[in-house]
Amino acid sequence: MTAGQPAVNRLVSTIDRLSREMDEVRATADGRALVELAKGVLVERLRCGPAQAAEQLALLAEQAGITQLTLAVEIINEVSGDTLTAVPDEPSRTTAVRLRTAESGALGADDTQAVAQSLFTHALAPLGASAVAIWSAGSDASLTLAGHAGFEPGEASRWHYVPPGVSTPARRALVERDAVWIVDLDESGLPSIGPGLPGRVAVPAGTGGRIAGVLEICWPAPLAPQSLSVHKQVEALAQLCAATLDSTAAPNLARAPSELVDLADGLLDPALVLGPEISPDGTIADFRVHHVNRGFVDLAGRPRSAIAGKSLLEAYPLASAEGNLFDKIEHVHATGESFRAERMTLAALIDEVPLTVAASVSITRHGALVLVVWRAQDETARLANLLQHAQRLGRVGGFEEERHSGRIMWNSQLYALYGLAPGTDPVPLAEIAAHAHPDDVLSLNGFVHNVLRDRQQASTAFRLQRPDGVTRHVRVIAEPVLDSQGELLAVRGAYQDVSAQHWTEVALSATQDQLAITEQESLERNTLTLQLQQVIMPPTHPTIDAFGLRVAVRYRPAAQEELVGGDWYDAVVLPTKQILVSVGDITGHGIKGATGMVVLRNALRGLAATGAGPAQLLTWLNLVAHHLSDNIIATAICGLYDPHTRVLRWARAGHLPPVLIRDGDAELLPMLRGVLLGALAEPSYEEGQLQLEPGDTLLLYTDGLVERRDVPLDDCLDHLCEAARTPASNLDELLDHLLAHGESNTDDDTCVVGVQLP
User: Fold this and answer.
1) CATH number for the 266-377 domain, one of 3.30.830.10, 3.30.450.20, 3.40.50.2300, 3.30.530.20?
2) What does the radius of gyration of the chain's CA atoms come to, in whole angstroms?
3) Taking every annotated instance into account, which residue ranges of this chain make up the domain ANTAR (predicted)?
4) Phi, psi at residue 749, to the nearest 5°?
5) What is the pLDDT of residues 681-710, one digit of tens each?
6) Which are the contacts of 717, defined by CB distance < 8 A and separation ≥ 6?
7) Of 319, 354, 535, 735, which shows the fewest CB atoms inside 10 Å?
8) Is 387-497 a domain of CATH 3.40.50.300?
9) pTM of this prediction?
10) Cβ proximity of 635 and 648 under 8 Å
11) Residue 277, CA distances (Å) to 209, 435, 521, 719 in order
12) Considering only CA atoms, which of 703, 749, 750, 743 is closest in space to residue 560?
């Protein structure tokens, strides 16, 4: 510690003590002011002197068992008729004393900073608030920090001014003209003074329909829902701030009318200076026309004297309906946020007939008054403006050449098209070929000859080569202007930059060529795929009769050639005298699906020659799909029939279960455990056995026979079982019936294999 540190500490301590003493003095003074005000009320009511009033106040307070300050507040509440303490649930005497003390301190303060300190000390700190800010609203909708209390040092200087357009809680309250309660400032995403204080409320402070500022109160933690009593107290304190802000601005407002009149008279457009008409309930009823400027032209042709002094709705009854002019004026008057519109409909009544005029409108607030300026849009000027925009959007440059004087006029778009600076000597139409691509010179010479020599309208397209090396594709059109004797007076025309269109056409042509090539390649690929599939998987397969077992197959390719898929089937007698029956479905379509089908079908045939069972065959086939092929994913059912025992051993890999038809009934076989081929490296497959009896029929099929997009799979399988119960004279007839009455709508391949023991 340095030698001077104790002296510094003593100085800081002294300053803190003096600050506390000053706060106590202010609080005492505020309470004394209330007592003196109550004495004044007693003097007036009791017709007595100040001394007798003081004695009466002391006596009444003693008899009521309350302090003189509390009794003084109750007397003031009784005679004031305001809403400062008129909150729901009949506020406690302590609350009323706090609010009246805050009011006394605010009314006796010299500036808004002292008002903020009084409100914070007497009214807001007891509510748990940790800081308060009073914002003054500017005429341009900006916010200025007029008073504050409870914030960290330096925070107020950082938030001294908030420019227009910055969204903060105070800005929202100003624009929405309503209190904004925020639970957590961080979650709201709004910046504001005191970012470490999450809970807050911003309340517009206004009187007479005009918002003079915003009262913002901060809490140290997220804000819990507040009672209606607290809401009313906050609104009453905001009104108190409004009165203070208005009184602070009073000197400026006193000078505003004459300054505003001078400003309005200096405008060349019609202007009105409006003042608010306040209804008894404190809302805006209308606006009074205080001044009509010298350049004023009434919409209905009335003189200035017929408008001055009238109310806005009296002079223009349709202002509250057509275009909502009245609402715009009220919003500007309340918030100070100016309004401007390039095109707005204004209306007036002429002999009860509405007259509407399109105009650009400007509305601004100046103190307590509003300035409304409009400029009726002349039709000719409006059309010229539209033409200018159309030329800019269409990249059109216009020109005119006078033949006798040689004067040439270009618009700004034409200078930009040629790559020349505005004011540069324009290029005459006769010299246009000098700025074109050499290949276009011949056609340009013909174009110039038609216009200047033959005096006919003409047009052509050429490549414009600019001084900066840029080439633009341009279309030019020109027409001669002739006198009564047919002499050429001038040439008018236009250039249009069609570079974007040209390159779009080039790109479109290239795209069409590429699409034609792609379409041809796709057609050839689909044809090859279909031929490959038909060779390996013919639509019908000769019925197999071996060892007393009959096997029949039906195959239906996809309805769309580009959806040629990977459904496959097989029925073959093995060297072991067993019969292999299988069906499968490869994911994907086209060449990949067809080649994948060939790989698995042939692999299964080769593996079956080993004599292994169905579960082992699927395990090996999964190795082929997972490791020895290009990521094939497939479903399959593999069955081996032993003619000696009439037992069918079978296993499934993610495939739909077979259907057994026995004694005129049809039902699904159990859903054996087994995942898709190629999905896992080392899966296991469950094997089942079925003892076939004479007359039994077993159906193996792919999902193309049953699946519908809009029907659950279980319902689709029930429909298949129902169709399989239909009596049939032989196995071929049954399979044809199933294909004909299948309700699948997935446009997929369909394969069905029937195994029948006569």
Assistant:
1) 3.30.450.20
2) 47
3) 15-76
4) -60, 155
5) 889 999 999 999 999 999 999 988 888 888
6) 656, 668, 706
7) 535
8) no
9) 0.41
10) no
11) 9, 68, 80, 80
12) 749
